[in-house]
Fold this sequence. Notes:
The chain has 3 domains: 2-23 and 236-365, 3-Layer(aba) Sandwich (Rossmann fold), CATH 3.40.50; 27-230, Nitrogenase molybdenum iron protein domain (Rossmann fold), CATH 3.40.50; 397-426, no CATH class. Helices cover 46% and strands 16% of the residues. It is built from 16 helices and 14 strands.
Amino acid sequence: MNVAVYSDKNFDRQWQKVLSTSSLFDPLIDERTRSIMAQVQKGGDKALIDLTRQFDGASLTRQTLLVSARELQHASRQVGPQTRAAVKEAYANIQSFGRQSRRSGWQGRNSHGAKVGEKYDPFRRVGLYVPGGTAPLASTALMTVGLAKVAGCPEIVVCTPCNAQGRVNDDLLYALKHAGATSIYKLGGAQAIAAMAYGTSSLPKVDKIFGPGNAYVVAAKRLAVGHVSIDLLPGPSEVLVIADRSAHADYVAADLLAQAEHGSGKERVCLLSTSAALIRKVEVALQKQIPKLSRADFIRKSLKKNGWLIQVRDLSQAVALANAFAPEHCEIMTQDARRVSKGVVTAGAIFLGHHSPTVLGDYVAGPSHVLPTGGAGASFPGLTVDQFQRRTSLVEYGPSHLTKALPAVRAFAGMEGLDAHGQSAEIRRC
């Protein structure tokens, strides 16, 4: 882990180094991604098959790109009772949270007395990317497909990578089926995003793309904007912990390690603490816990590059730095966590207190764990059910309402020199 102290002469430079590690923008990755997407746009299914062979080592055909009903049935038989129970429990919380945040239409009257309002309709065909590489994320399946289901999307298309044998993880397939995916394709990486954005013979173009992924997936989503809309840019995992001397060092260390283990090497973990003693204890706890973990090599790689233990002057400075970081996950382990949380305004999700680790949000709490990373939290919210709904405004005028509006319409048409605009209202004058 990298260590910094607010009183260091080079602290500002060190902090800029922390912020500069965002994985959202990499010119080399953008260039490679653009090439992959161009291949798919031009070559369609053939390009998808070629790229899957190149990157995943799997030999697929047009027929086997799509996960079959037989494969789904097989996966369901392989899943044990504990997995079934966990999927059911998490899905119930996700559905409940989603129903609470789903938007509904409204209608009112404006100053002319005319009816105005909004209506919300589910997107007709949505495309969801679910990572399935070193860690097949069954939880992500629930937290994306589940929200699309709550919103009422009739077609829910999922892309997830397969292994070299052309198979998708059984637990992941079970979760996707349970959540309500209507079609599942064995596609990963930038090529999957391109397929959903442009469409191919086997995979129809979608209306909007959702879901997290590696740096190539994030780049592809960003480059696809204009051809299709996207939810947000969720890349490699992040956690920032704000802690005072009341925090338990073992808890802090465990939470940092949990977000460092994903495997991309671009994960970002950061502790901001007012207590030098706590930081020293966390360092010791990290060294004790890492050797016991199955993904220790991945963890060490992430911590060496993007792991920081930072002593801050006070909690006010910690909040200011947290807002500059805009973390995907922000844990607050202080004596008055709720008060401190009020100042944090750029985090994807906030976890309050000593018994609310990020993993609860990752798996079972209810809110989607698809959250902005790389500083995008300053302008992007986390994934919610309303992002699966298309908003449309409604305007309904009668003759008397039109008459009241005419003076202002004439004025604007005159200001802008658009007489046809004015005439379209004047012609209806009674």
